[in-house]
Structures are given as C-alpha cells and as structure tokens.
Amino acid sequence: MDSTEAITIREHLIAGDLGYLTYLHGKIYKEECQYDLEFEGYVCKTFYDFTLRYSQERDRFFIAEKDGVIIGNVAILGYSDTEAQLRWFLIDPEYRGIGLGQKLFKRAMQFCEEKDYKKIWLLTTSDQEKASSIYEREGFKMVEETSQEMWGRVLVEKRYELDR
Predict the structure, then answer these.
(1) How many CB atoms lie within 10 A of CB 44?
(2) Which of 42, 124, 141, 150 is the 20 to 30 A CA-CA neighbour of 30?
(3) Is the overall model pTM greater than 0.85, yes or no?
(4) Which domain holds residue 113?
(5) What CATH number does the domain containing 66 carry?
C-alpha cells in the first residue's frame, strides 16, 4: 500500500466500531508487544466507560477505513471545556508508513483547536516509540513516567501533555 487515496476517514461511530477496535487493539498489541488477554479486557473497559459519558459535541473519533474495513483510529475525549485526552491511536501494520497516522493525528488536533481545548493529554507506554515520536514532534511533553506490571509485562507508562 503506497497511498491513502482509497482510504476514507469518518468522524462518527456506528454499531460494531468499538468491538472491532477492541479486536484490533488486542490482536496488534499481542503480536507486536506480547500484551496478554488482560490488555484486551482493559481496552473493553475503557470503551465501555467511554460509552457511559459519550458526547457527540465534545468527543470525536477519526476512523480510517479501506473497503469498509477499519484500518486505523484515533479519538479525542473532551473532559471539560478546556481539557481533552487523545486516545486509542492505532494503525493496522499493513497501512503504516504511508502517512495515515499523521493524517489522523492532524485531524484530531484540528478538532481540539476547533473546540478550543487548552490542554491535551495522553497515556502511552515505552513500547510505543513511533507514536511517542509523533507526539513529541507535535509539541507534546512527557510529564510523568511510571514503571508498573501490567498486561503480562513490566512497562513504563508515560503521560504526555500539550498546552495550547
């Protein structure tokens, strides 16, 4: 795959999206990071918690599809009038390296600008070097690191923040 021409990005959730995104997270993180089944449960819980507070006005998903199949995603969760979290950023490995991650990330940041979110934060792990480089290149600063055992491994969880 060398182009994003045949890829569409939509900004609304439809039935099955959260289940499929849970599947993608579980599958990809098992293959790439050796995360155990607890990780997939964690993703399920975060999506469930999200559904309890979902606001079409303050929250936004950016879902990349090719031929009707989800191949990437990033979401913005608005927690207040001024603060939001970037969440669930994932690109199917087959579609990496073509600028899709950058495109999704840019759309997410544009949404934050439209909503006038002053602080955007995210959590990631030290396993996610490529994603972390995107965050840092876009001005996010790592503000906290915590080593803990989770998902079958000892990981360093990192918190990044961007003040606008």
Answers:
(1) 15
(2) 141
(3) yes
(4) 7-117
(5) 3.40.630.30
CA distance 20 to 12: 14
Determine, yes or no, domain membership for 26.
yes
Both tokens of residue 128? 């996610």
Calpha distance 95→71 (Å, rounded): 7
pLDDT means over runs of 10, the chain (164 residues): 77 95 96 92 96 95 97 97 97 94 95 97 90 91 93 90 94
Q: How far apart are the first and last CA of the chain?
A: 35
Query: Is 157 strand, coil or helix?
Result: strand
Whether residue 43 is contained in a domain is answered as yes
The pLDDT value recorded for residue 164 is 87
DSSP state of 108: H
Amino acid identity of 50? F
